Amino acid sequence: MESIHHAFSRLIKGTQEMGQALTGLFDVGPADQAGGQAQIQAQLVGPVGLAQMARQSADLGVEPWLLFVASLSLSLAWLNLLPIPVLDGGQAVLLGVEAAIGKTWVDRIRPLLHRVGVFLLLGLMAWAIYNDATRWMSGAVLPR
């Protein structure tokens, strides 16, 4: 019975720590607003950066690695909610516009919006890979 209590205590503590970490990601104060672009670029990682971060967290043990995987999953969920047409958030926006304006108008423009959405996602991925490459070539430390 004591082990179950300990497991739930760890679950609650881990959830609180994850919440604090995620809240810190979105904490934008006056000092952060001035260097917002540089801060976003410094935090954006692509597949190479994610692999390095996964390795670093795995080196620390199972619990840090699981926390990394959980935060990665939450980050992808938030990314999926962006109002880019090919993502779920974009589909929700298109459904709202469709309900407000009319289906025929949205059906005519939907293919163009999807192309723009794919272009935006490819641009974001290219930017992330470029950041990874420049960090790797300069030997810079990954964001924490």
What's the helix-strand series?
Answer: HHHHHHH
Helix content: over 70%
Give the overall average pLDDT.
79
Number of continuous helical runs? 7
Number of strands: 0
Question: Which structural class do the helices and strands define?
Answer: mainly alpha
Using the CA coordinates, give the radius of gyration.
Answer: 20 Å
Biggest β-sheet: count, sense, barrel? none
Report low-confidence residues grouped into runs of 5 or more.
none
From the spread of the alpha carbons, the general shape counts as flat
Give a brief outline of the structure:
With 144 residues, this protein is mainly alpha-helical. Helix content is 83%, strand content 0%.
Describe the structure.
By secondary structure, this protein is mainly α. It has a domain at 44-138. It has 7 helices and no strands.
Key descriptive features of the protein:
144 residues
Describe the secondary-structure layout.
Blueprint: H1 2-25, H2 30-34, H3 36-43, H4 47-60, H5 62-80, H6 88-101, H7 103-138
Helix pairs in contact: 4-5, 6-7
